[in-house]
Amino acid sequence: MGQESNHFYTEKMKANGEGARHNSSTTSRSRNITVIGYDHAGLEKQQVTMPNKNTFLAALIAMIGTINFGFVFEYSAPAIPQLMANHMGALRLDENSSSLFGALPLLGALIGSFFGGYLVDIYGRQSAIIFLSIPSSIGWVAIMYAQSVTSLYIGRILTGISVGIASIACSVYLSEIAPASKRGMFGAFLQVGVTAGATIGAAIGMLVSWNFLAVAGQIIATILAFSMMFMPETPRWLISNGYEELASDTLRWLRGPDANINYELEEIKLVKNTKNVGYSELFSPSIRKPFLISIALTIFQQATGINPVMFFCTYIFERAGFKDSDVVNLIAATSQLVSSIIGYFLAARFGRVVLLSCGSVVMSLSSFTFGLYFHLLDTASLNPSWLALVSVFTFFMAFNCVWGSIPYLVMSEVLPSRVRGKVGGICAGIGWTGGFLVSYGFLPIGEIISIQGVLWIFSGFNFLAAIFVYYFVPETKGKTLEEIEIFFDSNKSVSRATEV
């Protein structure tokens, strides 16, 4: 396996260097492609129902990129209380600077998502995942050896850039290597990785100081860069750039020697379009609706309030009167990991619309009851700690089962292959902008209208998200990426019938 994988990587590097000189005939797209259950091009469709072990291996390696993602965001929870201590001197954070420290990765992610969209389209999904380890490594070094708050800020921005690249590159990579029938399961790998990274950060953060915790982040970035070098590029990127023979070899490696890859390969070729799409075409009929759906989902994902609640988890529990808040933070992170694993199986069983709608309702209710806890704490001198724990754990579980991964999964499904990186980067960038504003404003606004007031605002946004998803998001479960693209391109809607 190692020699085969290394062959793919070597050929991919040649492809990146020779792409400008390589001209191959572009297969014309057909609007008459038939849907599931029929044949075209004289080939019998054979859906791959069980991914090959190589597909799982590639997915697990790519998942390290999302482990880095989760570790970056979790880092602030154990680090902020340490950095706010009086003995920190020049590195001491006050309440305002700690808010900025927690939110800066979102600003970095905004930068990284635009940059990542470019990398994904031009240099490939695999290369983009390898590249994200560079800003991550530099950022962790800046934090490790920080002599001032400015160095801490720079490190947080750089690690955030790696998160922005991962949010695009990892989601696109996973969706493009997965069989259509298992794409939901593979999309759930995104959140499993994020929550695994958060759990690792919370566990190590209980044992070591803030600067040694950064060493763990550096190790994750190094492992990602090395291991991803031996994984193949996605067949869709290879075909779109004219490397059809290598794409066939890659698909064979991913699906296994006994799989019938002819239909899948020909279907990818039918929607091949190497034309460079300009920004003016974002509102063309075939792109406009997927673009707007993707933007809305990324905005609602941040408006759930997950990032400020996660960033300031330790602070919130200290505010709620829990003495050993680090332990509670670890329990919260572990519950997120467990719920994301549950989400992996739910994604295989239920449609996107059902999961997103139900998850939004549960998060709306848990945000409301979490706010109610703080209201009782402030006005009635009551401290029903059980209500705080149940609310926050329910909130985390609902998010990680559904909203952590499915918005990016849907985005990577509905956006056409030719713009998946560029437009995905724009959508993610808009979402990260909202996330930065929400996270940075969480504590200052909480001082003005109270923490419960902010949590009730999150509750309202979660309810609005449920309404939006139910009425405007099409069901994509079980459809191939090519079928989804052709449906949008011909102004048809993907079946709303939820596959349960």
Write the topology of this structure.
Elements: H1 2-18, H2 53-83, H3 95-122, H4 125-131, H5 133-144, H6 149-177, H7 183-205, H8 210-228, H9 235-240, H10 244-255, H11 262-270, H12 285-303, H13 306-311, H14 313-319, H15 325-349, H16 352-379, H17 385-403, H18 406-414, H19 420-449, H20 451-472, H21 481-489
Helix pairs in contact: 1-10, 2-3, 2-6, 2-7, 2-8, 3-4, 3-6, 3-19, 4-6, 4-8, 5-6, 5-8, 6-7, 6-18, 6-19, 7-15, 12-18, 12-19, 12-20, 14-15, 15-17, 16-17, 16-20, 19-20
Q: How is this structure best described in words?
A:
The chain has one domain (54-231, 271-489): Up-down Bundle (Growth Hormone, Chain: A), CATH 1.20.1250. 73% of the residues lie in helices and 0% in strands. It is built from 21 helices and no strands.
CATH hierarchy class name: Mainly Alpha
Q: How much strand content do the residues show? A: under 5%
Gross morphology:
globular
Helix and strand pattern? HHHHHHHHHHHHHHHHHHHHH
Instruction: Give the end-to-end Cα distance, rounded to a whole number of Å.
Output: 37 Å
Helicity range: over 70%
Q: Tally the helices: what do you get? A: 21
Main pleated sheet: none
Counting DSSP E segments of at least 2 residues, the number of strands comes to: 0
Mean pLDDT: 80
Spatial extent as radius of gyration: 22 Å
Look at the structure and name the CATH superfamily: MFS general substrate transporter like domains
How does CATH name the architecture? Up-down Bundle
